[in-house]
Amino acid sequence: MICILAGHGATEIWQEGGQKRLFEWGPFSLFAPPLNTWHRLVNGGREPVRLMAVTTAPIAMDFYRNPEFIFNCPYNFTDRFHGEDNFFATSQNFYAVGLQSIWETNFIPDAKEVKVQDDLYVKGTEVGMVQFETSKNGLIGHVADWPDWTLPQGTLPRRRRGDRDSQIGRIHLALAEGERHPTLRHRPRR
Hints:
The chain is mainly β and 190 residues long.
C-alpha cells in the first residue's frame, strides 16, 4: 500500500505479458499495486515525491524463505487484476458488515478529503471510521474522523502476546492541516 505524502506523478501497472495501465496521483493519494504485478512510479514534477509504503514482503520472506520464488514467480492473479482500464478509478462501493463501514476502492485521490459515512460505523462520540480494502490485497487500512484533531487515549494499540496484529505490525499515520497537529497520547508503561 502506498501513501503519497508530497508531490505529483503517475504509476504504471502491468502483469507479465499484459498491457500497461497508467493512473495519476497527488498528495495524500492512497493505492496498492495488485499482487504480483509490475509497477513503476514516475515523478510528474520538479520537486521530489515523498511517499510511505507498506508491504507484506517481509512476511512472505519469513514464510517461504525463498527469494527466487517470491521475486521471480510469473503467476498472474487475474482474479484480482486483469488489466482493466478503470481499475484505479475511485469507487463509491460503501457498505456495512456488522459494525464496520467498508469501502472497496483501488484508489483514494486524497485521504484527507475522505468523508466518513455518518450513518455507518461510529467508534465513539463524533468519531467516525471507514475501513478501506484496496486491490483485493491482504493489507487493510482505515480513515477515522476525530473532532479537534485529537486522538483519544488508548487509540494507538499496545502489543500483546498472542495478538495477531502484533506479529504483522501496524502503521499509524495522522494527517492534519494548518496550525493544529494531531496529539498522540500514550499510556504510561507499567
